[in-house]
Write a structure and sequence with these properties.
With 278 residues, the protein is mostly beta strands. It contains two helices and 15 strands.
């Protein structure tokens, strides 16, 4: 079982950029554990297909442990459950920041979008390597969404199959990760983002009942470079395309595509002399 803190359905989550940083990537066997700090900034839409954007900067501590069967790293807390050669099952948790409707012109007068937490299993499939030094896989998480906003309530299910290509050591300290995939949502989560109940309908914002289906297609690229054994910089860019989605007729659907960008650095304050796998 795996507990993952990282990418979320809402693109206004700073952990999106945080998860993009391939901490500790190195040609040599990394330390068993590391502690350090993280600082960075990001920019993203307030919600999928919103024209308003959120810009944030954060400074956070981090801890990494690289055990043979148990680890704590950029993907979260990992207790691996191999199913068969090339297949692995884990458990994921994702989170996102809230958005105030008064700050989003088209949602004014509607309830705020609360903090979202996503829980669920993820099947990971190892695919044949396309070349030397490259790793390819297919991640298929299915997660239930919960909103924390004056209480906790379920907000549906999301399914996010993603093709992942990793190049951990490109030389001169560089690493690269490329991802491409889709996000499907059930009726509840699509209604949460795109639905307009009659109570909140206006002449400019007619009532709308969202339908289950595709929410977005997305592609992302993250890169990082080691400046020293203790300092690493990274950048992250993702493009979400919503124009193929099921609910483009919603009055809350305002644009077909939007980027999410992040930039930051990590620094290691201490590490073990023992190496992973020893």
């Amino acid at each position: 079982m795996k507990l993952t803190v990282g990418l979320s359905l809402r693109t206004n989550c700073f952990l999106l950029a945080l998860a993009a940083s391939p901490w500790g990537a190195s040609a040599q066997t990394p330390s068993l554990w590391e502690v350090g700090g993280f600082a960075g900034s990001f920019s993203s839409p307030d919600y999928p297909a919103s024209v308003e954007r959120m810009n944030r900067s954060l400074v956070l501590p981090y801890f990494i442990f690289r055990g043979e069967r148990f680890s704590v790293d950029r993907d979260g807390i990992d207790a691996r459950v191999p199913l068969a050669p090339g297949y692995e099952l884990d458990w994921g948790v994702s989170g996102s920041f809230p958005a105030r409707s008064n700050d989003v012109r088209v949602r004014q007068g509607m309830p705020d979008l609360g903090t979202l937490l996503e829980f669920g299993p993820r099947l990971k499939v190892k695919l044949p390597s396309p070349g030397p030094g490259l790793k390819m896989g297919l991640d298929m998480p299915l997660r239930e969404v919960f909103e924390v906003n004056g209480g906790t309530r379920g907000q549906g299910l999301v399914f996010e199959p993603t093709l992942v290509l990793d190049a951990a050591n490109l030389g001169d300290g560089w690493s690269l990760t490329a991802k491409a995939g889709f996000t499907w949502g059930d009726q509840t989560i699509n209604q949460y983002f795109y639905g307009v109940p009659p109570l909140y309908a206006t002449a400019q914002r007619p009532a709308f009942d969202a339908q289950p289906g595709l929410m977005s297609a997305r592609a992302s690229l993250s890169t990082s470079k080691s400046l020293s054994p203790d300092l690493r910089v990274f950048g992250f860019a993702r493009l979400d395309y919503y124009g193929l989605g099921t609910n483009t007729a919603s009055p809350l659907f305002l644009q077909n595509s939007s980027p999410t960008l992040g930039l930051g650095l990590t620094w290691t304050l201490g590490r073990s002399e023992a190496r992973a796998g020893e």
